[in-house]
Structures are given as structure tokens and as C-alpha cells.
Design a protein that fits this description.
Blueprint (H helix, E strand, L loop, with lengths): L3 H9 L18 H17 L1 H13 L4 E4 L2 H14 L6 H13 L8 H28 L9 H8 L6 H32 L11 H11 L6 E4 L4 E3 L2 E3 L4 E4 L1 H5 L38 H16 L2 E6 L6 E3 L1 E3 L3 E7 L13
Antiparallel strand pairs: 1-9, 2-5, 3-4, 6-9, 7-8
Helix pairs in contact: 2-7, 3-4, 3-11, 4-5, 4-8, 5-6, 6-8, 7-8, 8-9, 8-11, 9-11
Length: 351
């Protein structure tokens, strides 16, 4: 659907939103279980936000003056979430496999066949290793009140009757969403800011505005689709049960009837009263991503750390998206030059 009013009608329709979220597919038995899992992971990430902030500052310091993006985005986010994704006491071989999955691009469906094949080759071995670790943790017991990592949170929130393999698949899905969605959103924020601001002067926008505008201008999720639960009619058109009906956040975010100059990248619009239209980068209605707020915080912290005391410029990038299930940036080089510390002004007498 590209008509905004019709799309909003669909997103607000209670019948269309009955049933379960398609994000988890059929892996969980009920909507209650889906909500419980989403909240468990969200709450754990929120607790670890201060640690993420500290680690991000360290990771950015070690990034170097030149880095290759968008691949650097998921790698940077993974480095800062590795211990909450999988506790340091987990088997080292499994932690290495997760790191290899990020390097290979398993955190998003890659746009080129060679990249996609390379990433997917790792999936069976990774799933097998995680399945074995899930089995081991379940045998040892689990303290649901104090999950050590995302895997603990997934095990604790999953119904006991779920197979170990299903729990492992749920974990991989969330791992990909945390590292990939956030990492590529950071990449988009940096690219768009650098393309739309002259090099040298600092960005005139708060990081929060910048991140929100990047998610409007180039939302990582291209389509939000669901199966129609029973025969419904929208806009005078009948839809049979089982029809996939999709709303595009990209099209809603670029509707000239609801946004002021939607093709322009203008972070300052988020400080203008009444200057915003329908904003659905994390879906909408009852199936809005449970982690939307924490994702926004994680992206903003990364962008803030990268821009802190530095001049950022890009080479080789443009704003045309690569659409392959998700909306990925094209390859670009980020140049990060640290600003020289201000020299103290000496008063008379050298004081």
C-alpha cells in the first residue's frame, strides 16, 4: 500500500492486528509468549545501556582514522554488545562463531549473491552450536529473575515445551536484529549527515534528531507485512484471508501531503512544531517493536561517540539504498579526524 491514509487505516485496524506478530513467525505458540520474549530482551538491554555507552567510547577510540562502512556498523555494535549477547563465560568457540557471523554479514540479508552465500554458509554450524549450548543451559537450570545475557533471557521467556533448536533460532533472530538493525542504522546516520553537511564545522543537529531523521529518510525496514486473518475490505478493495498485505515505512515517510519536503534530509524538522507526518520505522500499532526505544538509544549513543571531538567525512558513498529485504547503505569510507585539543590561554604572568 502506498496511499498514506489507507496504510494508516490498515495499521490501526484491530482485526488486521489480531493474531500474532510475523517477526517471530510460528516459533512461539501465542502472542503472550511473543510479548514476554520481546520485553525480556528489551529490559536486559536497557540494564546494560551504561556498559554499552562506556564500551562504545573505547571501541570508537580504536576504530582508526579510516574505516569501511556499512560493514563497520554491525562490527562496532557487536563489539559493544558481545558480553550481553553471550556471557564471557560461554564457550570461547561459540563466541568466535558469533563474531565470524557478524564479519561475514549474517546480520542482514546481503544485496549481492556472493556476500549472501558466504554469510549463509555459516548459519547451519552456528545454529548447531547454539542449540547445543541451549541444551546445556537448560540442563543446568536457569534463574529467570537474573538473566546474564540475551540467551538466558530467550531461554527464560520461552515456553518449556519449545525444542532446543527453536530456542536457538529465536536467539539468532534477535542477535541479527540487535546487531544488524542497529549497526546499519548507525551507518545510515553517519552517511546522511556527512552527505548533507559541509566538512569541517560540527554538525548543527543533536544526535537524537539526526538518528530520527535518518530512520525517516532511509528506514532500515522496507516493508511491514502481515497475513490478512480473515476476509477484510480496505479502501473499497476486498482482501481474502491469507493475503499478504504490506505497508511501506519508506513511502509513508516520503509522502508530500504529510511531510514538509520529505526528500530533503533535515534533522531540524524534529524541532519544528507540526512538521512531522506518520513515522513508523519500528512498525506501528500493537506490533510496534518492543525494543524501539532502546534501539533508538543504542543508535544515538554510537553516533554521539563517533562524532565526539572529531571531524567526520565520507568518501565514495551516496544516499541511494540497496534494497534486499532491508534497506542497506552502499559502501562508503568514513574518515574520522580527531580535533586538536584547545590550547590554554595564558594570562599575563603565565597564570
Amino acid at each position: 500500500m502506498r496511499d498514506t491514509e489507507l496504510a494508516l487505516t490498515v495499521l490501526r485496524d484491530p482485526t488486521f492486528h489480531s493474531g500474532m506478530s510475523t517477526f517471530f513467525g510460528s516459533m512461539l505458540p501465542s502472542r503472550t509468549a511473543q510479548v514476554a520474549l520481546g520485553r525480556a530482551v528489551r529490559d536486559l538491554l536497557r540494564v546494560h545501556l551504561p556498559s554499552y555507552r562506556r564500551t562504545m567510547a573505547e571501541a570508537v577510540a580504536g576504530l582508526g582514522p579510516v574505516s569501511q562502512w556499512p560493514g563497520a556498523g554491525p562490527l562496532l555494535v557487536y563489539r559493544c554488545t558481545a558480553d550481553v549477547l553471550l556471557h564471557p563465560e560461554a564457550p570461547p568457540a561459540l563466541r568466535r562463531q558469533l563474531a565470524q557471523a557478524v564479519t561475514a554479514g549474517l546480520t542482514a540479508r546481503q544485496p549481492y549473491m556472493r556476500q549472501r552465500a558466504r554469510a549463509e554458509l555459516l548459519r547451519p554450524k552456528l545454529l548447531a552450536a547454539i542449540t547445543g549450548h541451549v541444551r546445556s543451559r537448560r540442563r543446568q537450570g536457569f534463574a529467570a529473575a537474573e538473566p546474564q545475557d540475551v540467551l538466558d533471557a530467550v531461554i527464560g521467556a520461552s515456553p518449556e515445551e519449545l525444542a532446543d533448536r527453536t530456542v536457538a533460532n529465536l536467539y539468532v533472530l534477535l542477535f541479527q536484529s540487535i546487531v544488524g538493525n542497529i549497526g546499519y542504522a548507525v551507518a545510515w546516520s553517519l552517511l546522511l549527515a556527512c552527505l548533507h553537511h559541509p566538512p569541517g564545522p560540527p554538525w548543527p543537529w543533536p544526535a537524537e534528531w539526526l538518528v530520527r531523521e535518518a530512520a525517516r529518510h532511509r528506514p532500515f525496514v522496507w516493508m511491514v507485512g502481515r497475513l490478512v486473518p480473515r476476509p477484510l475490505e480496505f479502501g473499497g478493495l476486498p482482501f481474502a484471508a491469507g493475503t499478504v498485505l504490506s505497508v511501506s515505512p519508506y513511502l509513508l515517510h516520503h509522502d508530500t501531503h504529510h511531510w514538509d519536503r520529505p526528500e530533503a534530509f533535515r534533522p531540524e524538522r524534529w524541532n519544528e512544531p507540526g512538521g512531522q507526518g506518520p513515522y513508523v520505522p519500528y512498525s506501528a500499532g500493537p506490533f510496534t517493536c518492543a525494543g524501539a526505544a532502546i534501539a533508538q538509544s543504542l543508535i544515538t549513543e554510537a553516533v554521539t561517540a563517533l562524532a565526539q571531538n572529531a571531524r567526520l567525512t565520507v568518501g565514495g558513498g551516496d544516499a541511494r539504498p540497496l534494497v534486499s529485504g532491508s534497506v542497506l547503505p552502499r559502501s562508503f569510507t568514513l574518515h574520522r579526524a580527531l580535533k586538536a585539543p584547545a590550547k590554554p590561554v595564558l594570562t599575563k604572568g603565565g597564570e
